[in-house]
Amino acid sequence: xxxxxxxxxxxxxxxxxxxxxxxxxxxxxxxxxxxxxxxxxxxxxxxxxxxxxxxxxxxxxxxxxxxxxxxxxxxxxxxxxxxxxxxxxxxxxxxxxxxxxxxxxxxxxxxxxxxxxxxxxxxxxxxxxxxxxxxxxxxxxxxxxxxxxxxxxxxxxxxxxxxxxxxxxxxxxxxxxxxxxxxxxxxxxxxxxxxxxxxxxxxxxxxxxxxxxxxxxxxxxxxxxxxxxxxxxxxxxxxxxxxxxxxxxxxxxxxxxxxxxxxxxxxxxxxxxxxxxxxxxxxxxxxxxxxxxxxxxxxxxxxxxxxxxxxxxxxxxxxxxxxxxxxxxxxxxxxxxxxxxxxxxxxxxxxxxxxxxxxxxxxxxxxxxxxxxxxxxxxxxxxxxxxxxxxxxxxxxxxxxxxxxxxxxxxxxxxxxx
Length: 418
Description:
The chain is mainly beta. Helix content is 1%, strand content 32%. It has one helix and 24 strands.
């Protein structure tokens, strides 16, 4: 007998409507906030602990990807996330695909992008299960992603790609389900996007991600370039050329001579650095060159880069932020950690905090930032500034106004990253 966990919210045992490979789903046709059933054929729970379409940050606040992977533009596009609020530890919720035919395949694979950002003590595990129409059985845990894997929203810590071997199901008709298992409320929302099922080529490589440099701070005349090389093929790779090109200039090529197994990745750091010191928007392109590579469209990744360090003097009064808005904010400040910082105009909640903004010193006018309620003793709420350029200064200083009123008041620390 199949355990109850793996028959819970099961689909029909016979696929009557079948999709062929290559199959791709980016969820862009769904509306923000939509819950199952969805028009694209995917199913799941309709309420409670559920998967839900999202275009920005999940309703829990300081968790989820915060940004769609397909567009990689804030407040644009749709991804799916598991809304963990209201769940208990051990609860699970399922995101189930329509039926997909693997007839004619020999080494089919599943790829998807995932993001697991939240509180380390509240982020559960994500499982990939596969249903075989020929046997009417779900195979649990074909792939597993344990615990927290990202340290910030996708604009800070980008989405990660995962490739799963489906060779055991070649020739069958399948369904795929993403099973999110909760550790309890509330900072454990898991995100997935851009799901593909296809027949990989024997030889296929590409740069899946430019890890460094990143847009924002610290771009210099000797910036380190780091890329993820993905083996999309079902044969191992023992040697591949990888190249980066900055602003359309001379290509920089290095040969990677490590073994990259099928459906695996390798992170390569170029020995040649990139000059990003000019105050312009830089275009960085990276790609692989591999003998016998049968698909050129997945060889290349690119990124736009600009040093966004702020010059001195700089004043931030937060008055441009909307009341009760959460990170990320348009002024470049962000919040992370176990509980959030939040914009506020009037009184903070539960008889704590100031009752007015410092800039205006008028009730219900202006905006300040305050921390929300902590969920457990020892949790930290981080408020991160944009980068500041201190070049040319001799005695730079930080000045701020603070207010700490309440019956259960913790400690406030100022940290500096160089």
